[in-house]
Amino acid sequence: MKIGVYAGSFDPITKGHFDVIKKSLKIADKVIVAVINNSNKKCWFSLKEREHMIKMLVAEFGDKVEVKSFNGLLIDFMKENHADIIIRGLRAVSDFEYELGYAFVNHDLSFGEVETIFIPASREYMYLSSSGVREAASAGARLDIFIDERLIDMVEAKAKSLK
Fold first, then answer.
1. Which site from 49, 122, 131, 158 is most exposed, i.e. has the minimal number of CB atoms within 10 Å?
2. According to the annotation, is 94 in a ligand binding site?
3. In angstroms, rounded to a whole number, what is the distance separating the alpha carbons of residues 33 and 138?
4. Residue 74 marked ligand-binding
5. Pick the catalytic residue: 17, 23, 30, 50?
6. pLDDT given for residue 42 in this prediction
7. Residue 59: count of CB within 10 angstroms of its CB
């Protein structure tokens, strides 16, 4: 069974992230959405809140998608979860250059056991980022084009609480 890991901060999860999850299920038998717990990063949402949002969205996939959090090296998380594919979404050429470096590092750290697969974003999500969503929410802009409707109230409430 091929197990893929799609790791990120998902602060919040966007329609672009969700699109990559759906596409990755065509490649992997199971996908673990790994929510990074990075204390150096200023996230709007707590780890538990981010996990909750993702679980709400991926519930339709049943046991084909699992949501977990982790600290430390992605390669260690991969070993612990018997995963062999790292899934990365790409928006622009600059993403590719950045991600390619990490792909080589992860391949070397895993002694060639782990491969990285790049999934290009759909056209409508090429520009989309979590930071853009947070900025739009802070400005009171429309969010339905960026995130699932089930998350809008949560994101708007967070934006108001941070003002």
1. 131
2. no
3. 26
4. yes
5. 17
6. 86
7. 10
Average pLDDT of 140-154?
A: 96
| Residue 91 appears among annotated catalytic residues | yes
H-helix segments, the chain = 15-24, 47-58, 74-80, 93-109, 130-138, 149-161
CA separation, residue 32 to residues 63, 69, 81 (Å) = 10, 10, 9
- Residue among 26, 39, 41, 163 flagged as catalytic: 41
The CATH T-level fold of domain 3-123 is Rossmann fold (3.40.50)
132 marked among binding-site residues: no
Active site residue 17: yes
- Counting residues of the chain whose pLDDT is more than 70, the rounded percentage is 100
Distance between CA 40 and CA 21 in Å, rounded? 25
Q: What pLDDT is attached to residue 62?
A: 97
